[in-house]
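Reader question, answered in our methods column.
A reader sent in the components of a multi-part assembly and asked whether the whole thing could be modeled at once rather than chain by chain. We filled in our standard form and ran it. Here is what they sent:
COMPLEX SIZE: three components
ENTRIES:
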Amino acid sequence: MFQVGLTHFLVVSTILFSLGIYGIVTRKNAVMVLMGIELILNAANINFIAFAKYGNFGLNGQIIALFVIILAAAEAAIALAIVLNTYKTFSNVNVDEIDKLKE
Amino acid sequence: MIGFPILSLITFLPVLGMIIILFLKKEQTAVIKYTALAITALQVVLALVLLMNYNYSAAGVYEEKSFQFIEKFRWINITGISWLGTVKVDYFLGIDGLSMPMVILTALISFIATLSSWNINHSLKGYFALFLLLDTGMMGVFVSLDFFLFYIFWELMLLPMYFLIGIWGGPRKEYAAIKFFIYTLFGSVFMLLVMIGLYFSATETLADGSKVFTFNILQLMNSANYTADGILSSLNPNNMRFAAYIALFVGFAIKIPMFPFHTWLPDAHVEAPTPISVILAGVLLKMGTYGILRISYPVFPDVTKQLMWWIALFGVINIIYGALVALAQKDFKKLIAYSSVSHMGYVLLGMASLTSVGINGAIFQMFNHGTITAMLFLIVGVIYDRTHTRGLNDFGGLASQLPIYTGFVTVAFFAAIGLPSMSGFISEAFVFVGAFSIDAIRTLTIISTLGILLGAGYMLWTLQRIFFGPLNEKWANLKDLEFREYAMFIPLTIVIIFLGVYPSAMLNIMNTSVNSLVNLLSGNINITSISGF
Amino acid sequence: MSESLLINLSIIILFLPLAGFIKVVLFGKKFPKLYLLEVAIISIAFALSVFVMYSKLAYYNTKDIIGAFTWISTGNAPFSDVLNIELGIKIDNVTVIMLFVVNLISMLVHIYSIEYMRGDKRYTRYFSYLGIFTFSMLGIVLTHNLLMMYIFWELVGLSSYLLIGFWFEKKSAADAAKKAFIVNRIGDIGMFIGILILFTSYKTFTFDTIFAQIAAGNLPFGSSAWLTAAGILVFMGAVGKSAQFPLHVWLPDAMEGPTPVSALIHAATMVAAGVYLVTRIFVMLTADAMLVIAVVGAFTSLIAATIALTQNDIKKVLAYSTVSQLGYMIMSLGVGAYVFAFFHLVTHAFFKACLFLGSGSVIHSMHHEQDIRNMGGLKKKMPVTYWTFLISTIAISGVPLTSGFLSKDGILAGTLAFGKLTGHWLIPIIGFTVAALTAFYMFRLVILTFHGEPRDHHKFDHAHESPLVMIAPLAVLATLSIFIFYTPNPLSPDAGWFMSSWVKTPEQVTPVDTRFDFLKPSAENIHGGHHGEIVHSVLYTETMHWAHYPAMILSLVVAGLGILTAFMFYQWKKINVDKLIENKFTNALYRGSLNKWKIDEAYDATAINGTLQTGSGLSWFDQKIVDGAVNGSARLTRIVSKISGWFDTYAVDGFVNFTAFFSGFIGLSFRKLQTGKVQTYIVLVVFSVIILLLFFKPF
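And here is the structure of the entire assembly that came back:
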């Protein structure tokens, strides 16, 4: 019988992670980059829970996953605030053009 | 004993004067001059006070408690720097029979030199400020008993001298000043090396029983104070005492100046203004021989004994060589400069004898050379002021034009020749008596007596060329001495003749200390037994 | 009459002239009459010295009176040599006689100079110099130790220097003064070394202590060779001061000084100081040293006499005569005729002073003409000068009834005895030859100056007898040249008080084996009277007696021969002098003598020039080599610093700059990577992580 094992969770999380990276690297819109980051965080969450389920770690994995969700929410809030401010300053949210750091 | 720190006073009084002068306006030339004169006169008074309170039977040399007018306190005290331990330098002043004559000499010559500075006519303020600083440096060398302090004063005197020659000097003043400075500094470097070497070789036991490295000259004389692994300790199997002695000796020899390190002297003298020549010959040269007696001899008695023949040899070379070269000079001042080289040779010869008579003679000769040569340079200065030439062949027959001046010249010249009844004779005779009594240097002594013949030769020849013969018409309007010049010559003449007739006045001052030094050198005194005073 | 009184009087006598000197130096300008004080002072000193002499000879004839004090004392420490230097006065018979002689002649010269020097622009100063000279000379006479002897020795050198160079405007006078001082210094160095030898051995300068030590067998450095050396070295001082060969060259030149000075210093007193010194150290002279002294004296007397034969300057003749006579005295001491040497010193002082003052009188009246070829016939114009001069000449020639005869005869007898006893016959031969030569040149001088016809009429017409103050001293001195003051028997000095009770040959203190045989004490005379009277062996006494008459006769003969020849040559013109001069053989001798055997020239060429050349050579060496080395090292340092400066600029600093440049270059190239775009960085990070993971293979 086909059973869902650890490998399947990890494959899903890898796909999510790759999508996240892809999103971050290819999108120019800062909001889209943020969404990529969210995807990576969720990939990590899946890993935590999967390892918690199949490993002998007790509830630690779930707790950290919850923690990451809260963190992600907070991060999203701050990041969006930054993006809004960036928009105010540069009149766009295109990350390629915001290269002040280079100077 | 005196209730106030007289040695500090006599040493730093000129600095006080310097500060006063620096606050004066440049235009107040008379005030500046009289301030300097008052300061140096006060110094003479203090020297006399010292003399009056001087204890003739206190030896000093290696024994702290028999030094006089001691001032001692911790000056630099840095505790507990890792491997260095405690760094401690004392402000340690005191005098004994070796330094007392030099203190008197310094005070006297400074006063006379101030008088002869009256004709300095540009940048008076700077001149006297530097002059007084120089005075402090010289006095400090003679009163300090801590090697570090000694070295500081030694270097302190260098700088004003450099400027005094370099700014107020003759046509080649820069050359002479730089030569003087570099030459002397070259010697100081050696001294510094040896000083540091000694510092790390010997310790002093403090009151609380702890041992610290020391610059204290008296402690350095005590062989018990040397640590076994100290580089200059005689306990150290590869000890460097011999090399250190020679290095230190070179440092002092440059100042004397000893052949072959003497060539800065004629240049410096010829270019320096008269009062500076007077100081240079009168006091500065003595610092070399004084240093040898104060530091080289008692700190390295072992090496001194090994090298006495060589010291005597260089003394004899100085005597003969200086006299012969003087014979060939055509410049009055250069001639006197070389005669200085010759006369300092007697000091070396007397010291080399390591006898009480010889060293007494050497110190006495230091004093006498100071007064006599100072007078000779004043004589050159007087004639140079009037004629603006120093060529020995430019004069002739001045005796009939300047009879009083000629009288003083005759006194000074015959004193330099070593005529009995003048002080130079006693000291030279003592040197010869001392040196002759030692088998090893008897032959050298006999050779060196040629010096008194050559001395008569160049001095009398000079006397003849300048003062005798028909009067050179060019100088028919010269004026004889004025009051200020009398004031310079008369004290020196009195000192020269008084000490010639009654030499005990000076010999008694130094005799006890010299005997003590000779005992130390001959190993008759076990100095370790008196440590821990 | 106590001993301390004599000592105190001597001290007063000693310091009176010095006081005069100091007064004149300080106040001479304001009080031009101060010279009178000087004359008064010396007269007082003379009167006192007469008193001292009388008291000493009458009351303390055989006792030495000594007064001393410690001058310098070092060495109160336990381990060093004790050095005590005493100054003191020793009054014995020789001293008081010298005191008398010096003060008498000094006084006469002072009086004489009042007139002779009148009008000189440094008139008072002249008297002050005479004062310091008298002081120094008395110091030599009175001293009881070698150091004080040396001190005053140098001081007379100084006063001699001042007085020879008194007319320093003349170059020749200044030259002569310098020469005198320096030549004397050569002798003094020897003397000083001799003193050093004695002092090093005995730790004292005092004569009597040294002699006592030697007598006790304590020799310098333990060997009699050193004793001989010490004797000869101390004698070198006398060679200088008493103008003995080879240091005699200064004395003739010293005649550049005023003539009274020549009389006082360079004839009668100072030059005799050398002889006096040898009499003082006589007892410590070994046979070898005495032989050296005798030979030096004999050679000097001969060479000076030969030079005196042909000189034309009246003072030069007298100067060489002085050298010759001093040689006589020295020779006499060398042969052991101590008493006669001292006797001759005294008699010579009087008649030579008289001769010099006489010549001064002539020079004064001839307006400073000194060449005897321009004189002649002065006998009529200057009778007193002539007669006194003649008496002195007779005395110096050794004609009986004069003092000179007595002393010279004694010396000649001494040399003869010496010749017989030791076989050194050359010394008496030289002695008699010199006696003949002396008689000849002295009479030549008298004849050319006073006899015959005047050769320079102009000067002759102005010549006149000198005033009383000048001729009175002449008269006194000439009188003292007569025998009666010394002995009642004109043919033998032995009977006189001078010989019989005043002056005795002291006994040698040297080890017996270093003495001449005849000076060794023998059994017969050891029992002799009191201290100092033991003299010679019987052998010597006998030989002296043997020598007495032959010597007297021989000396009469040679003196007569000399005088006769002089008359034949110059008075009666029996022998043509000019012809002799033209003769080839005698011409060489004549020229040699006239040119003083070229000794001065030889010294100039060798010693003096050599020293000066060495001086210039060393001066060159000093400037070029020693100072050159200093300057060279300075230059070397500068070159090195230039090179290192270049190195610093281009190599060290270049490296630093290169590093900076390189880093900059690297930075520039890597800067391109820094796009400032987040995504680029993330790509880099991801790929880096992947590469790292692959590389380290953590799984």
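What stands out: The CA atoms of residues 51 and 578 of chain C lie 54 Å apart. The longest strand of chain C covers residues 65-74.
Send us your own complexes using the same form.
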